[in-house]
Each structure stands twice: as structure tokens, then as C-alpha cells.
Amino acid sequence: MYKVLVTDNVNDEGLTKLYEHEHFTVDKNTELPPKEIKEIIHQYDALIVRNQTKVTKEIIEHAANLKVIARAGVGVDNIDVDAATRKGIIVVNSPGGNTISATEHTLAMMLSLSRNIPQAHQSTTNGLWERDKFKGVELYQKTLGVIGMGKIGTEVAKRAQAFKMTILGYDPYLTEERASKLGIKKATLNEIAAASDFITVHTPLIKDTKHLINEAFLAKTKKSVRLVNCARGGLIDEHALLAALHSGHVAGAALDVFENEPKITEGLLKQANVIVTPHLGASTQEAQIRVAIDVSEEIINIFESQSIRNAINMPQTSGEVQGRMEPYLMLGEQVAQIGIQLLNDAPEKIDITYAGELIEEDTSLLTRTIIKGILTYHLGESVNLVNAIHLLKEQGLTYNIQKNAKNKGFSNYLELTLHKHSKEIKVGAAIINGFGARIVKLNEYRIDVRPEQHLLYIKHQDIPGMIGQVGSILGKNDTNIGTMQVGRKEIGGEAIMVLTLDKKIEQNVADNIKSLIGMKDIQTLELTTGYNFQDSPFIEV
Ligand SMILES: NC(=O)c1ccc[n+]([C@@H]2O[C@H](COP(=O)([O-])OP(=O)(O)OC[C@H]3O[C@@H](n4cnc5c(N)ncnc54)[C@H](O)[C@@H]3O)[C@@H](O)[C@H]2O)c1
Ligand SMILES: O=C(O)[C@H](O)COP(=O)(O)O
């Protein structure tokens, strides 16, 4: 049974699939103080939050069993994603569940700002009739600067066009082609500042975007510009905004989000031309149901079928790609396990080459799988696909990926090279149509070995009788040989044998083999994901 903790007001209807699932129990408590969350979090496999709960490094450090942190919404700035990644916890969100609601809120705020609707409502309900005081401005034929042309920025731009506004869009990823398709102008920040009557921000809050709208930017804006922020507090420097409102340079601001929610910079609320809402962008019935469904399905998929759709700290791969890559993921893990056992040391450098059909594929998950397989040898079960790359970098190790058109005669090929000082271990592998996974290269030797659970690697002098002697020692110790592959560079020179065995051999058996004349090295290799011939003799890809 998987235990899920919900600490924010996430919609219950949207959580139905989780509530009703026989493998999940859900505890929902929106009143938990951070200290208490820290104390109980070790009991849970998954945590669901909106933006109220601050999922800090401290909470994450106590989350001994947590596999998933799910954000029922978009912004993950309330979650210490780095700490989660380090601990191997997947962070997922609902990237599109509240797009329309946030878009409509932005439009509502822009219209309210231009026509002083909240102020006029207040005045009128107070018994006044102040028609002159609340004269507004039209959106018609005005210029709207949209900073951040992602999902919400794009939807805002489309709707603002219905008001016949000219749209300037700024986003590092906005191409001329997309801008022209949308019927907007691609602009720089300076061009937006200089030409816009309204400016709306729709970027995430990251290091790069903190105080994007600051004193210097505001100084470049048109007099009487109006600002809208329904994205994140902190994108606008509230003190700089206040000063520009005081001076009359900025004609008004509509704010749904604030730097230190729920606190609002003193003075902003006293400005008659500032309208505010308490972070309501996503607060519609529809959006709340959608985001809760999204995270429920995501959690169920992660635990039940290992598939991930919207991870923040994992590469995104479609189900189709994941399906195609599945045999390679298994092979990658096996290659990593063989390589690291043969190196029997922490590598200094890792080289991975993908060739043949693999050069066309998204191999990011495969790379992670290989790195995970390597690190697990020394770091154990704390390594997973989420934290593998992070842990590698933390160890000061580098990895290098090469995509090579030369496929060594196989339709697909992957090769791992592990380096430690002057030692180098090379393992090459391929999926062979009709035969399945094969290890096809060990260091400089070409071989053809199925990656089974129990392998025996032997390096020896190429002298007569060696195969017989090894076979006889194994036979005497009741160890059946599945297959045996030999490789040599020259007659009488150095040679290798790779055997698949039906069971693991004891150390004394290995020692016996090692004592044979001409024997140079022997290593038993155990593959946790290796084929077990008895369980699946005919599983081929
Ligand atoms: N008020 C609310 O309740 C509410 C609801 C939903 C989303 N949001 C917030 O709205 C924002 C946008 O959400 P979205 O779903 O459109 O995200 P998105 O990821 O689809 O779009 C964000 C865009 O910002 C762009 N960007 C990043 N850095 C930039 C920079 N320096 N300058 C210009 N553009 C930059 C990205 O390229 C991307 O296209 C997020 O901060 C999200 O948290 C708020
Ligand atoms: O990033 C988001 O999705 C919005 O800020 C909504 O946040 P909420 O779920 O806390 O309303």
C-alpha cells in the first residue's frame, strides 16, 4: 500500500482516483505546521501540495520513503527541487491544468485595471455615484507587451487580439515563425518597455527573472504604462513599482501574486490605482479539478507502471519512445553492471557511445540508466534515475556522450568505457533482431554473450586444455555452464573466456580456477537485471 499525504487544499473530486485506488491510502490535512510535516513525512511515499506548503530542504531530508512530490499546479518555486533531486525524489506538476484559468484571470485583471472596476464597485456599494472619478481607458488599439510567451502568455496574447490590441512578445524561445503564426511581433524587453501601454508577465520565478521588472526597466517604459502580474511575486520589484506609482509614471498595476505572500509591500494597498487578488489565478472549479486529476494519475502511473509524464527533474520521454527504449534501458543497466564490476573501482571518467539506430533516439533516459547502474555499485540503493546525474557531478566525475554513425556492423550499438588511472574497461552491446540483448565486446575482444544473471569472466594464456580444465572444475562443483565464449587476439597470446552459469559460484571455486597454470584473472559478474534462463528461456526482443 502506498501512502499519500496532501497538505494543501487540493480538490477532492479531482483526487477521486487516488482515494478509490486499492493500492493507495490518502491522508489529507491542510492544517499541518511545517514542523509536523517534517515529523510525519517519513511515513509517506508521495506528497501532494499547491503553493501554500513550503517543501523545504529540511522536510525533504526527513522524507526517508518519499518517491514523489506532486504540485497540483504549475509553479514549483515552493519546492526545493534541488534537494528533492539529490534525494532521488521525482517532482511532478500539472503544467497545463490551470492555463486557461490563469489566462482568464489575467484578462479579468487587465480589464478591471483599465476600467477601475474594483474601485468603482467599492465606491458604489458605499452609496456614492462617482462617474467622473472612475473614467477608464480602452484596450482597443493599445499595445500589450507579453513577457514570457509560454502556455499562459500565448493564451493571453490570443485573447487580447480579440480586443484589437497590438501584441509584442518577448521570450528567449519565441521564434519569428511562431510570432508571425500567432499574429504578434517578436520584441526585445527594451522594445516592450518603450512601446507598451500594458505589460503582463508570464515567466516562472527563477534566478534570471527575479525583479525582471525593476527600477531600470520601469524607467524605460512609456509614461502611464499599466502592469499586470498574474504569474509570480518577485518578477516585479514591489518597491520599484511603488516608487513609479508614486511618481505617476506607472498609471496602475493589477497584482494577483506578491513577493512575500500573504504579506504585501506596505504602501501598495494604499495606492488607488493598484488592484489586487489573493493569488487566485488558478482558483476555479475547473482548474482545481483538472490539476488534482493530473497529479492523481501521475502518482498512480509512477507507482503502478513506472511511467512519468510531467517530471520537473527527469527527462521527459513520450510513452512511445519509452516503449521503444525499454530493451535498451535493460541493456544499459546490464552493460553498466558488467563495466563497473570489471573495473572494481570508482571510475574517473565515463564515455558512452551510441551508434546505429540509437543515434536517432532520445537517449537521455538510457544515459541516466547507465550512470545509475555504475553508481549503484558503490552508492547502493540511494541512487535512482532522478539523482544519478546529480550524484555523479557531486562526486566530481564527468561523462561524455558520443553519437557515432559507425555501428560496428550492428543495427544498434552502445558502448561504455570506464576509465580509472591507466585502467580502461570497455563493454559493447547490441539488441540483435530475433536474438535479443547481447554483449558483443569486452575490452578489445569481440564476443557474443547473452547478459544472464551469473557470468564468469576469465583472462588467461591461450594454451591447450584451458577450456576443459575450467569446465571440469565447474562440473565438479555442480555448476552448469549455459554458454561459453572465447576470444583471443593471437594464437598462444592473451585470451578471454566469458561463461554464463546457472548459479553463482563460491569463492573457493573461483580460487581453484585462478590457480590453474596460465590463468591471469577471474571475475564473477552478477547482473541484478540479467536474464534468468530458468525463468525466461525464450524471452527475446
Ligand atoms: N496566479 C496563478 O495562480 C498562476 C496560475 C498558473 C500559473 N502561474 C504562473 O504563471 C507563470 C507562467 O506559467 P506557464 O504555464 O505559462 O509556464 P510556461 O512554462 O508554459 O511558460 C513560461 C515561459 O517563460 C519563458 N521565460 C523564461 N525565462 C524568461 C525570461 N527571462 N524572459 C522572458 N520569458 C522567459 C519560458 O521560455 C516559457 O516560454 C509561471 O510562473 C506559473 O507559476 C500562476
Ligand atoms: O503556479 C500555479 O499553478 C499557480 O500559482 C497556482 O497556485 P495554487 O495552486 O496555489 O493556487
CATH class of the largest domain: Alpha Beta
Please give the alpha-carbon distance between the first and last residues.
33 Å
| CATH-defined fold name of the largest domain | Rossmann fold
Derived structural class = alpha/beta
Q: Counting H and I runs of at least 4 residues, what is the number of helices? A: 17
Average predicted local confidence, pLDDT: 93
Instruction: List segments where confidence is low: pLDDT < 50 over at least 5 consecutive residues.
Output: 532-541
Tally the beta strands. 22
Radius of gyration over C-alpha positions, nearest whole angstrom: 31 Å
Describe the structure.
It is a single chain. The chain has helices at residues 16-20, 34-40, 57-61, 81-86, 99-115, 117-125, 151-161, 176-182, 189-195, 215-220, 238-247, 285-305, 319-343, 364-379, 388-394, 466-476, 507-514, and strands at residues 2-6, 24-28, 46-49, 68-71, 90-93, 143-147, 166-170, 185-186, 198-201, 225-229, 250-255, 274-276, 349-356, 398-404, 412-420, 423-432, 436-442, 445-449, 454-461, 481-488, 494-501, 519-526. It has 541 residues and is of the alpha/beta class. A 7-stranded parallel β-sheet has the order 8-7-6-9-10-11-12, sandwiched between helices. Strands 14-13-15-16-17-18 form a 6-stranded mixed β-sheet, covered by helices on one side. Helix 13 runs parallel beside helix 14 (364-379) and helix 14 (364-379) crosses helix 15 (388-394). The longest helix is centred in the middle third of the chain and has 25 residues, at 319-343. The protein is elongated, with a radius of gyration of 31 Å. Residues 532-541 have low confidence and may be disordered. Bound molecules: nicotinamide-adenine-dinucleotide and 3-phosphoglyceric acid. Residues 50-51, 73-75, 98, 279, 281-283 line the site of 3-phosphoglyceric acid.
